[in-house]
């Protein structure tokens, strides 16, 4: 990248941010929450405020497969065979990713662990490095509100912009505000599918929350975004 193309003000801000990051304490965090709980909205703020890297298992898998790393090739083989990618591969990917410079002061882990066995394997890997998970943020939202949030969602496929017929409607019903193109409803955005996913989520992750009980902070994620962000900041102070 040619730095001469970047405004000086932006460069100065980035240098200041990096200097501030040098004094930030290390943090290793897990975000737990059902679909639609707002983890994706809050994770960039958590990452930036605490100078952490964001580790999403899906992104790591796709990157490893694209880069044809040994773990990526193993994962690709499993996926092509229609099998689940093993816990060992995912923990291996996390171990590789936490060596990146941007993960020097820690990470936000999203989408893993989903089971107690995965949590144990993650802790074993971290313990070998003399590290451990510091906090687990549990984004709690009543199931019925999640159903309302998801079932009313409409998406602009090309950009990923999302709307909600009740909470954030488009200016003109059924069309994207920016392009005027039609909005679509995702196949899985229906009450029956979501209730099934929520049932599986609760069955799998309730034991994970119990496993980390001394490190769990419950975030009331049914509040407005600013209130949720304030709860998160308080939990991480």
TrEMBL record:
Q: Which PROSITE patterns match?
A: ADENYLATE_KINASE (PS00113)
Instruction: Say which species the protein is native to.
Output: Micractinium conductrix
Sections of the chain in a coiled coil: none
User: Under the GO molecular function aspect, what terms does this record hold?
Assistant: AMP kinase activity; ATP binding
Q: What name does the UniProt record give this protein? A: adenylate kinase
Entry similarity comment = Belongs to the adenylate kinase family.
InterPro entries hit by this protein = Adenyl_kin_sub, Adenylat/UMP-CMP_kin, Adenylat_kinase_CS, Adenylate_kinase_lid-dom, P-loop_NTPase
Tell me the domain of life. Eukaryota
